[in-house]
Amino acid sequence: MLNMLAAVFLAATVAPAHEPATSDALIIAHRGASAYLPEHTFEAYLLAYGQGADFIEPDLVLTADGHLIALHDLTLEATTNVAEVFPDRAREDGRYYAIDFRLEEIQRLRVSERIEADSGQARYPKRWPPGLGEFRIVTFDDLIVWLAELNRTTGRRVGLYPETKFPAFHAKSGQDIADALLQVLLRYDLPKPSMPIFIQSFEPAPLERIRRDHGDRFSLIQLIGSNDWQMNDVDYGSMVTPAGLQQVAAYADGIGPPLSALLEIDASGRPLPSPLFRSARDMNLAIHPFTFRREGLSEGQSLESLLDLFLHKLNVDGLFTDHPDVAVERRGLGHSD
């Protein structure tokens, strides 16, 4: 879907409601500057900060002893050497679940560039070499402390954009990941002007509960997946209808859809804002699409053109990218000195 759209927009003009001279969209560092260094490591977060990202995005899961750690998957084998350190700790399905390990054990693992389970090869071969370096898993507490100090010393106000990963899975394991996240944020008196916060989730239930219990204290983003992903029991097909978005607007400040969901092609082959885009705009929902990266584009396409389309034609409110430096540069197009 993305490649088809990209091939069209590179040769066409999108017709938005208006075309601003520049963009003030938020640049969200997807798992840090993950195009350059292994995802969800301090090094990737630090690089994203230096590249000018407005928000650092940590995906969060829980350990057996209730600590929030930055990890995209429920399992550890795709991005760590867990099978070497704990060869006898896999479940019957052969997977190593983070929730089965204490924090002390997690901290013994070495993080690597993501590999594919079936081939054992890097998912993105042109990125950081798998196995190179001494990267470690980051706790959410440590990330907050680190970011607060860096904001203090630089005078910047870079925020955090945590995602509660698989709340229903954690609940079945006796853990409440949304509550764990809130406890940490409240302990550090977040959000605050020096460190804004967005909370995101693919599952509505935790976001609805946060809105009910904490009012407007937290900015909430409903992520939109695909029913084909079979990641939970949410019906995303219904969610993206006007009626579904109306329900989302009752508890969330915005949506995080796949970027391909925001465009459609008319009879003449011209790309236009999709019904989802138009409905979200009508309901004053912020639009933060994911994920902008160089991989997955066809020959002749470019990340720069993709960013230009969404930043300066569609005028999205923010975007998730593995390349914060490129997004920051493209966002600045049209600024006058």
UniProtKB/TrEMBL annotation:
Keyword Ribonucleoprotein attributed: no
Listed InterPro entries: GP_PDE_dom, PLC-like_Pdiesterase_TIM-brl
Source organism phylogeny: Bacteria, Pseudomonadati, Pseudomonadota, Gammaproteobacteria, Chromatiales
Enzyme superclass (EC): hydrolase
Domain GP-PDE: 25-331
Family: Belongs to the glycerophosphoryl diester phosphodiesterase family.
Gene Ontology BP annotations: glycerol metabolic process; lipid metabolic process
Superkingdom as given in the UniProt entry: Bacteria
GO MF annotation list: glycerophosphodiester phosphodiesterase activity
SUPFAM superfamilies documented for this protein: PLC-like phosphodiesterases
GO cellular component, one term: periplasmic space
Signal peptide limits: 1-17
Keyword Glycoprotein in annotation: no
Organism of origin: Wenzhouxiangella limi
Coiled-coil annotated spans: none
Reactions that this protein is recorded to catalyse: a sn-glycero-3-phosphodiester + H2O = an alcohol + sn-glycerol 3-phosphate + H(+)
EC number: 3.1.4.46
Protein's UniProt name: glycerophosphodiester phosphodiesterase
